[in-house]
Amino acid sequence: VDLEVRRLREPAVARAHLEAAQSALNKSREDGALQHRVAIAERLFQKSGYYDVAREFARLVSESQARIRSHRLWIMTGGGPGIMEAANRGSFDAGAGSIGLNITLPHEQYPNPYITPELCFLFHYFATRKLHFLQRAQALVAFPGGYGTFDELFETLTLIQTRVMPPVPVILVGPGLRGVRPSTSIFSLQKE
């Protein structure tokens, strides 16, 4: 299944994808690929509320920072779809700018449309991208995600533990590690 099909969407879109998958399956009950598609759509619909949580969190942070002139916090994400899009969208909803650190991967991730255009950066290497995240992070908010989310989370925790990086708040959102799918990512708060 295409990775784009596995991206977390806002609840209305996730519901529409689930209904479309169920409709296709109703026409061909024995089709294993359609059964798999419905199972994925059901999981994504169940988790789609995280999209709204990330969007609202980013909106609240952005609105609270609008009055601050120095040491302002910015929403900074991996710049892709799913939870990353939701966070950038929350800042956009508040009329604030946000940063996207996008990775150039063949046939996969593209910058989401809610990133402030002049703050959309493209990286060829994960290590360089992660370096920019960690150098600027004032806090880390992690939603259920895939291997990239775990990599960024554990790198942050390791650097804090070994005192290579100053301690920052690390907020984990979600039910735990069981059943995590590659549908979301980490976004951080970046001090101006």
TrEMBL record:
Pfam families: Lysine_decarbox. It comes from mine drainage metagenome. InterPro entries: LOG_fam, LOG_family_nucleotidases. GO terms for cellular component: cytosol. This is Decarboxylase family protein. Coiled coil: none annotated. Gene3D superfamilies: 3.40.50.450.
